[in-house]
Amino acid sequence: MKITELLTLETIKLGIESTAKKEVVNELVNVLDQAGKLNDKDKYEKAVLAREEQSTTGIGDGIAIPHAKTDAVKAPAIAFGRSTAGVDYESFDGQPSHLFFMIAASEGANNTHLEALSRLSSLLMKDVVRNKLMAASSPEEVIAVFNEFDVDEETVQTSVEKNMVLAVTACPTGIAHTYMAADSLKEKAKELGIPFKVETNGSGGAKNVLTQEEIDQAAAIIIAADKQVEMERFKGKCIIEVPVADGIRKPKELLEKAVKQDGTIYNGSGEKKKDSSDHKGRSGFYKHLMNGVSNMLPFVVGGGILIAISFMFGIHSADPKDETYNRFAEALNTIGGGNAFGLMIPVLAGFIAMSIADRPGLAPGMVGGFMAAQGGAGFLGGLIAGFLAGYVVVLLKKLFSKLPDALEGIKPVLLYPLFGIFITGIIMFFVINKPCSLFNEYLTNLLNNLGTGNLVLLGIILGGMMSVDMGGPINKAAFTFGIAMIDAGNYAPHAAVMAGGMVPPLSMAIATTLFRNKFTKKEREAGITCYIMGASFITEGAIPFAASDPARVIPSAVVGSAVAGALTMLFGIGLRAPHGGIFVIPLVDGNPLLYILAILIGSVVTALLVGLLKKRVIE
């Protein structure tokens, strides 16, 4: 199928009038709709904008290719628009876009259609095509350009060569970026004289699939993808993983790295082994800790909310001996506390260990975490168990690496779990559990006996920490401490933590509403989103504001978050669910209205400070 069977005279508009990204999308959607190509104009436009949220389709060199594959499309089509002045389309190269190709692929689009759409992406990589499209004076001339260059190229069978470079490209929709990255890499490899082959994982399935013989002979494999690709076939090979956009914009850099084997060795099952050229590596206390916390969080959130709901029937309603006993409340408390919370520490430890030692670390880590939970070592013991188990397994891998190859198969199913669980368990039982248990008792007693002044000071510290780096290590340290206190039965610290974390995005939303002349148009638009992100306890929503003006925004946010944390402690608020924002406020221990008041006061304080400190923006 020719491109001109999809790009027709009625889907071409040479005079794009819009000056903003969303307006361009709307204008091109109207072109398709008027040409009778859409079933549901609004649904298609939403699908295109949803794709833009994943990553911009402004690929640079003056080109943007908004696209979507949806049942809102009646018939596959391409709309072409041109803006002489150019539009800020948030392109990769930061330059205005002039040529816009909106690809509409129907849900049932066949491979013939998809191949034509991918061929369009390939043609646009050529300077001569782009120049002729900019010079075209009529829709007929645009069609003539594609008739001239849209010819079927002869398929050349790639011969297998030693140390050739391979690549896999893939984007979420598999229509445009997949093929543009492939063509960009292919053209640059040809220019540099590098033996090369690329596999495309597009909407029509994988094409030009890499053979095992090619993989065995390859120097390295470039994975330019924004979605998961089949990786196990690359075990033992040097891989370079980047977003698909880098395949389009940085082909020379990627190919040169591949030739030098400047990447990581893939060991299978998601594990990459650091080599001499991998300066970033995989290690790091923070990364391992966050792997454990992120996998533990669903258990804590779900369990915490169920426990909190059970208390709505009465604080002792889960106790069969109490007069307020309720069977349903007992079920909620058992599911949330006895089961979900019971798995919290084993999951934390297991995934920390797995981050360090890959799959062989999971079992020893979970057993160590379970021992910590049962032995009173709590959250701290779970942290220690996770790191202990992970590094025990790393040591075992080194020790067992000298065993005969015939025993390779029994390592993951026998040797690692047997010795990993044994060594981790012995150390937890004799060395770790008792000291951690005593420390937890001391810390719990200390917090329970703190006076109002000291509690307020703790609230100031925890609330302020949530705004220092907004999702970074300091923020996560406060968050992790709050979860540890929930595990210890003290719910006040995490109430201060969540209040402090909600302030930055909420305050930016309020500031952009009250002090509109202090923010750019884009910042004001982002401010609207911050109302939702702040209410949902997503502190990271304020990062764009902090990045653009850190000297004014960050100190202001820290002050407001500290105020919110202090007021939360002063009002005696407790929080059993570590996440959820506005959705869990009705379930807090204490007065929910006072908790909302604390958050609002902190947010207003920050908003006023930002409004006073920021300079007026001239647009």
UniProtKB/TrEMBL annotation:
GO terms for molecular function: carbohydrate:proton symporter activity; protein-N(PI)-phosphohistidine-fructose phosphotransferase system transporter activity; protein-phosphocysteine-sugar phosphotransferase activity. GO terms for biological process: phosphoenolpyruvate-dependent sugar phosphotransferase system. It is an enzyme of class 2 (transferase). Its main location: membrane. One of its GO terms (cellular component) is cytoplasm. The keyword Cell membrane applies. It comes from the Bacteria. InterPro entries: Bacterial_PTS_Sugar_Transport, PTrfase/Anion_transptr, PTS_EIIA_type-2_dom, PTS_EIIB-like_sf, PTS_EIIB_2, PTS_EIIB_2/3, PTS_EIIC, PTS_EIIC_2. This is PTS system, fructose-specific IIA component.
